[in-house]
Amino acid sequence: MAVWQDNLKRLLNQKEVLIIHGNIRDTAYLTEEGNLVRGLTDLINRTGKELGYDKTVSWGSFFDHEGRGHSPIWSLERITPLNGDQPEIRKTESQDRVSDVLHRWLEDEITSIDEKKIFIINYIDKITGYAPDGMYSEPTAELVTLIQKIIENISENNRLIMIALRDTMIPVEYYTNSPRVAVMEIPLPDRAERHLYYSTTLASASIPSDQIDLLSNITEGLYMKDLENILSDVLEEIDENQEVSSSMLRKIVNRYRIGTEEDPWSRIPLTGPPKGLLDSAENWFLERVVGQDHAVREIVNAIKKARSGVVGLSSGGQSKPKATFFFAGPTGVGKTFLAKKLAEYLFDTEEAFLRFDMSEFKEEHTVSKLIGSPPGYVGYEQGGQLTNAIKNRPFSVILFDEIEKAHPKIMDIFLQILDDGRLTDSRGQTVFFTESVIIFTSNIGTRTVDSRGNTTSEQRKLDEIINDSDLSDSERERRVREHFTRSVREFFMHEISRRELLNRIGSHIIAFNYLKKSDYQVNIIENKLKDISENFRDKFAGRGHRLHLSGGLTGYFLEKYGDSISEFGGRGLVNALEDEIGNIVADQLLLAEERGMSDINFEVYVDGDVIRCRRS
Asked: Domain AAA+ ATPase, which positions (predicted)?
């Protein structure tokens, strides 16, 4: 039996009043024998019978005496004898049905000691919703008072169960400083329940135990209704093909988890250029990302684990994100660029790259920007930026930039994502991160002031390593990586005291190198010049224009901006190239436009200590 069902039985023995919330709308619940009980009311009836109760009085369900839907729901109560006799339907004719039912319960029934009854109020949050300021309308205040009196006066032989979607949606007066009341959440089926369900229902289908284990692992976060649908699809696949593969199981589960059977991960080629994971992937990245060989190797190794399906083997959970990284290093060295290229490698487009600037989430209330505003607040209907983005594109590389600037409450969201691979937005809808890659970036290690406003020696220690002339280039790079890794660990362990988040990131703290080597700088300049040439061709192909960049430009920009690249990385170089080349090319383009000229060749070249542009 599930732990929560044991808790339900225990609390019904100990407390007169029980508030149940969470997974209350599931179609069925699993017993310890592997059987399904249809609906929460039937489960309560079953539990009540085991505990020796005589009847349940269920109010607020859609039914009539023939089992069909009936409106308004507050006019009917279903009285179910737990000895097997037929249920009785009691109807309230008054216009003020809710108040009349509660008055009758209070005055005539809940204090009775003749029988042991369980009174059930469904949708208590619809009868008396939570008021943030505690100010209720007069009719609602009367109902809140009536329910409080029921709680205070119910006899020890009777029980009251109030059912709501979320405990935060009902008045706190019901359970605050109330020793007779317990609040209990019904969770989604856990792994033990899922394994029991599938091992029982697939016992005669000749499915290997390892595939039942896989099915139990990858269905985390799903409702019993989803598990039933998945079972139906699995049995259908067996009927058609006499077997079911692990990849097919994943496709079937994804149909209900993220709404698609697509699996870009399975399309990553294992061998062959340009992207073969076993022999070409590193070169693919190194051709695009300059000077970060160590980071590229770490990325490729993580992709191999994700592609092979071994992520989560040690923890037993396979519903986590495919990979998690923490990119640490100075600004402008390619952290964001590598994340974009990872999205392109995995999903064939940089549009699968999502970036969130965490400097926009410094205040506690900004958590609503990620998961949506609570009910009743402005923007509730819009949802959250993060949850909406993952709903629309579950196969993504998600970058949380400058993570150290986020409010600590945001860290709780990251903990849930890294632990469970899912997140529930403010509207109660669950989104899954199981097919995504999570990347945090930070300049921790280069700061002079920490997140508390205290002076830190990070930059001074880094300068000592960089300026130590006795170190070889390889030793300097190694010590720089150690410095950034140590700084990140100290940030989580001591500065914000979030060791649990550091544990989820694990060994995937990737430190980026400074771009001091001249060959790194040459490659960066050449790549940027190539980008300019290609982008010019794409933009002005309709006019027949072409842009030629002479070979001397690399040396010109290396001499002029080499020191800047060493200190600030390649980001400033992009602006410098656009300014210098863009300014002189713009003049020639405008002159050509003014004279109605097309099919022009623009050549940018070095003339002494300046660059010029001529057209031909």
From this structure: 321-463
